[in-house]
Amino acid sequence: MRVITKVIITGIVLALLGGTNAVAQERVEQERVFPRTGIHGKDLLDRLTLSGYGTVNYQNYLTKERDPYLKDRLDQERFALYLKLRFTDRIRMSSEIEFEHGGTGATMEFDALEEAGEYEMEIEQGGEVKLEHLYLDFLTHEMANLRVGRFKLHMGLASSLDRPNKYFTVLRPEGEDAMIPLGWYETGVMLFGGFFHNRLTYELAVSSGLDSSGFSSRNWVKRGYQTRFEMPVAEALAYSLRMDYHFGRLGESFVGFSAYAGNTNPNRPRYDMENVKGWLKVAGAHLAVNEGNWRFHSSLLWGDLQNSDNISFKNAHLSKHLNAKRTAVGKQALSVSAELGYNVLPLINRETKQRLYPFVRYDYYDTMFRTSGDVIKLDMWSRSVITAGLNWMITPGLVAKAQYTDRTYGDNYIDPVSKQDMGHKTKERELLVGLGFSF
Question: Do 81 and 103 meet the contact criterion of CB atoms below 8 Å apart?
């Protein structure tokens, strides 16, 4: 890992040196464009870019063998706003604010009747409002640029196809979402660039890492994402690499891989595993094809956690106030997915600009694919999912979705009343509809 760190530091120095002359040439012009009091008026509007997306979904559980207490849901899943500012042609700022499940809020009121004249605090909304990313890009050369701040780690395929008009399912792909943070943002420095006119792109980053106290059976390392405390712990940094080769007529098709490595034990809230290594390694390969009326997406994601049995033992004795699952952690996790869709509207009307994609999808994922030590492998976390549905793209930025999902768990169904084995695999069947937009 020291070699990777040296490579990134060397790249940063070269990137900064490469941009010194260009920045100096612009300095006189910038003094004219940017008054000392800041950017004003029309000039500010010309340098700002606003974009975003949002989704609203309905989820109906047709069968509930795994969890009989599940209830149907109608959810404002998310609304994300991207604000970008161009300081110069070579220095740019990017930010994202995301409202999940309607945002969050609390109010206080004076109740003279039911509370005997006392003040009453109410939670008005149980969602989240988050500043997902905030970073500066220093653009020095096509092949080597610098990003500093809080940015997204593009692990897997779902992190790149994150807008609702880019993926078929109503909810984001569940295999990757079960293993790792799907919206994975960390603070650090990144080198990024491209070769062969950006046909081959890369991202190489050193950033804050995960905290092993949040790992669990159901979601492997996902809950180790450091959001529980005011500031992330940075006792151990993480290293990540992403490479993609872009091809096709529109440049929207790509194939590539991603890799991540970081020691997760030093980032625990307490010094309870400082002498035990907890290196997390995640690797993935992906393919996205968007050519003509065809769309095909496929992803493979695999991960390995060092000393997962020791981490499981320590997590079982964590404080309840930490809001950790305290369940056993698998040594390895695996997710495989593939989906195929075809736009059928040209078969009916060649002149229409709308698109209608019937699609099918298969997911297999197991967050306890392998275990170590005394940790027992639980078959219930091995899941196979078959999905079929429709995407109607009313305009390029507006899509209506519907899907039927059949999910099978690896263990047999146990009747919750009689506690008897019913002799078949546990099932969940769902019907989902949604509306998404992107601008």
Answer: no
